[in-house]
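B., you asked whether I could sanity-check this one before it goes into the benchmark set. Here's the sequence:
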Amino acid sequence: MINQETIKQARQTDLVAYLTAKGEELKRIGNNYTLKKHDSLFIKGNMFCWYSRSQQGNAVDFLMYYYGMTFKQAVEELTQQTFPRVSEVSDQPPRLSQEPLQTHTRAENEKRVIGYLCKKRGLKNSLVFTLIKQNKLYQDTNGNCNFVITDWKEKTIGAEIVGTGDTRYKQITTHSTYGFHISVGEVTDILYFESAIDLLSCYQLYQDRFTHHLFVSLGGLNGNIVSELYKLHSDKKHWLCVDNDQAGTDFIQQKKEEIEMLHTFRPPTAFKDWNDYLCNGSK
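And here's what the prediction gave me:
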C-alpha cells in the first residue's frame, strides 16, 4: 500500500519539470505553460486544466488522464525520480490570463440565442422555446447561450456556455460530475454527448425513438460524468455518442477499458458531429 506522504509528494510534482524531462514540447503563455500539440491544456506548478475537455487536477491526475496510467503507476512514476516539488498543493487550476471575466447575468430576452440556435445550428424553434420555458437555457448579457447544469435533484450548479458570435467560444462554469441534461420518460438508456448542441441535435433527429432516455452533455470529454453516472445506474444501458474524430475514438477506448458494458452511437462517418449531421445530413 502506498503511504500518504508518498502520494502527497507525487501530487506536488512540478509538471513543467516532469514533462520537459519526458521530452514533451511546452510553450509559455503568461504565467502558464501549454503543450505544443494541445494548446487548450494549461499547466502551472503541479496543476493542469484542459479547457476543451473540461478536465483539471494535480500531477497524479494528469498522468492518469493524459497517459492512461493507473493511480499506482502515476504515483510510482512521479516519485521514482527526483523532480522539483511545489511547496503546497494548489486547489486552483491555471487560468488563461487573457480570458475575460464573465458575469453570466441573464439578459432581458433570448433573441440572440434563439437566432443562433435556430438559424445557424438548425434546432427547431419549439425545442429552443421549451428549454427557455423550463429554465434550462437562457441568454446572458454578453449574448451567450447558457445551458443550465443542475445536479440530479435539479439544483442549479453551473452552465455550459456557448458564444453566439462568429468566433467560437465555449466555457463550463463548473467542473464536476454533472453536465447539462434532459430526460424523457422512465429512463432505460443514458446517452453522452460532447456538447449541449450535439445532444439537442441528436434528440431532434430521432425524437420519435427516444421515449425512455437521459441525454447528458460532457461539456467536452469529461469522463468523470460517465464514471459517476454508471456507478449510480449500472442497470441502465450507457451510450457514448461522441464526435467522429481521433479524440472521440480515444475517449471511447479509454472509457471501455474502465467500463466494459458501454455502447457507442456516433453520427454517420461522413459527418464530424451530431450538429453537422443535423445541418448537412439531408444535403
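One thing to flag: The radius of gyration is 20 Å. Otherwise nothing jumped out at me.
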